[in-house]
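Would you mind writing out a protein's amino acid sequence and the numbers that encode its backbone to help me picture the idea?
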Amino acid sequence: MDTLYLICLIVGGFFVLLSIFGGDATDADTDV
């Protein structure tokens, strides 16, 4: 379960960084 929690944190943080640095790039090429 710890790995699932880590994956959720990583993916969540990844999308947060995308929304901050990419702006509208969150809707472009989401391969996750």
About this structure: The chain is about 60% helix and 0% strand. The chain has a mean pLDDT of 79. The longest helix spans residues 2-21.
